[in-house]
Fold:
Amino acid sequence: MFNGFRSLKSKIRLIFSLALLLLAILFIVSIKYDRAKYDEGNAIHERLVAHYLYNYYLIYGKIDEAYLESQNFSLIKDKAKVINIEHYFKEKDKYKKYAVDTYKLQRVILINNDRFKLYLHNKNKPQIPFKRIFIFSIVFLLIIMLYFWVIKSLKPLSELKNKIKTFSQGDLNIHCRSDRQDEIAEVANEFDHAVEMIRELLQSRQLFLRAIMHELKTPIAKGRLVSEMLPDEKNKARMHSIFERLNLLIDEFAKIEKITSRNFELSIKPYKMSDIVEASIDLLMVENPKHLIDLQIKKDYQVEVDFELFTLVVKNLLDNGLKYSADKHITVVIANNKLEIINEAEALNEPLENYFKPFHTSKKGLGLGLYIVKSILDIHKMELKYQHEDGRNIFTVV
Structure:
């Protein structure tokens, strides 16, 4: 959408630039056309003058200088200048019975016949097309003013883009209602209404989830208290473990709610990957984890992450690995700045991207597990990769 906005401004600039370019070309072509028409008429006029002078000379035996003056022509009488002009015409191989050329910004006509030889200065010049220049200047200014008017009308779209960007970053406290009477204002008002609805839905969802988690905490706390009164130590430990697991699940649900609503602040610090993996194994709360998980630390490394969120990533990957492993055993490898979770299992039926969708279900559906993993990895600008080799699924956190 934003790229489209930038390209829209570029297209508007391109359209107005082309309009100005076409206007300039039209102006230049019209000027050249007028000049060509003037030159054509001027050449005909010069030949008529030469023809008149010749006929007049045949009748009266002299040059009609009064006629020349009336036609804005003049005789060049300066001998030195005549010699230079004659030399100039000879150099250009134009010394003929009739020739026209420009000499020192003056239009000079040579008439050389059997009666006389004259050099005339044609003082006629094309008029400056003030009317055309005025019209083209007005059109040019109108196009410029129209361009700035259109760009100014797009300014609210730029502001709306910034509000949408802020909204996409999780800030729901934005308002973009507009009193303008145009399509951009309509879009802004509809978006403002949508944000308000989303804000209300999120608040309702958060209130609902928090109410459920709060209500579950009470029976769990009572269950833990009752389990402490059991005489059998084995059953006491088992019940205590069950209630502890339920308590951890509620805490995880609270984290998931914060992640999906973007209502959290990251606490980024450097941690060893081995420490994160061991903390994640503890979160699994499984008996004899060393029999189920083979941890191979080939080369430990540090990552800058939010510890609580990232342990949830690794815990979900470990949990999925155990759940869908053929032999209920997984191998965890830490090496070369990456974490690998490997299990013996069939290849995924669909591309990995499909399992990132929330509530994805299939024959071996992964539910919310990978959706949570993907959400947290995106926050940390990390990536989960998958490959299947020799009957093993390999998930890699890069």
The mean pLDDT is 83.
